[in-house]
Amino acid sequence: MFNFFERIKKNPIIAAINNLDNLDEALSSPCENIFLLTGNIFNLKEIASRVKSKDKGIYIDIDSIDGFSKDTWGLEYIVKNIRPHGIITTKENLVWLSKDLGAFTILRLFILDSISLEKGIQSINSTKPHAVEIFPGIMPKIIKKILVETNVPIITSGLIMDIEDLGESLNAGAIAVSTNSKELWHCNYC
C-alpha cells in the first residue's frame, strides 16, 4: 500500500506538474510525490504508469484534466481505471465521492480573504479530506490557524519561490510543499 504520509516524511517537497515537458525532470528528482495538474483523457493512463514505474506517488487534480467530466462518472473512471494514489479537487462533492470510492483525497483551497478562509475551514471540517492544499502557500499565520481549527494535514502551494518560503511553510506546520519550481525539487531540505 502506497502511503502518502510516509513518503512526505522522506521528502516534504512535492513536484507539481503543470507542463508535461517537466515530467521527466520530476521523475528523476528526489521528490517522492507528484501532483499532476495537466493532462487529458488520452494521455492520463500513460502518465500515471510512468510515474508509478518510478515508484513515485501520483495525485491527480481532476479539476485540471481535459476531456473528463467533473462528475461521478469521470471521477469513478479515473479512480478505477487510472488508479492514482490520490485525487485533488476544489469541489466538496468530489471530495465526498472520492472518499466513497476509497481514494485518498486532497481538498484544494484558495485563500483570498477572511471570508474564503472561514468557508475553507468549514469545508475542511465538513468533508474531512485526508489532507488540504492551500494557496498561496506563503501565509504562516493562516497555515497555523487552519491546522488548529481543523487538525487536517496541510500542504502549501503557490508563490513558493525559494527555500526560505519552503522553510516558512514547513515551520508553520505544513507537512509538505507542492511547487512547480524545478530548483526546489532538487534542494536538500530534508
List the helices and strands and how they pair.
Blueprint: H1 4-10, E1 13-17, H2 23-28, E2 33-36, H3 44-53, E3 57-61, H4 72-82, E4 86-89, H5 92-100, E5 105-110, H6 114-127, E6 131-135, H7 140-150, E7 154-157, H8 163-171, E8 176-179, H9 182-185
Parallel strand pairs: 1-2, 1-8, 2-3, 3-4, 4-5, 5-6, 6-7, 7-8
Number of strands: 8
* Average pLDDT, all residues: 94
- Strand percentage: 15-25%
Termini separation: 23 Å
**Overall helicity:** 40-55%
Largest sheet composition: 8 strands, parallel, barrel
The CATH H-level superfamily is: Aldolase class I
Task: Give a structural overview.
With 190 residues, the protein is α/β, with parallel strands linked by helices. It has helices spanning 4-10, 23-28, 44-53, 72-82, 92-100, 114-127, 140-150, 163-171, 182-185; strands at residues 13-17, 33-36, 57-61, 86-89, 105-110, 131-135, 154-157, 176-179. It has one domain: Aldolase class I (TIM Barrel, Alpha-Beta Barrel), CATH 3.20.20. It is built from nine helices and eight strands. Helix 6 packs parallel to helix 7 (140-150). The longest helix has 14 residues, at 114-127. It starts with a helix and ends in a 5-residue tail after the last helix. The mean pLDDT is 94.
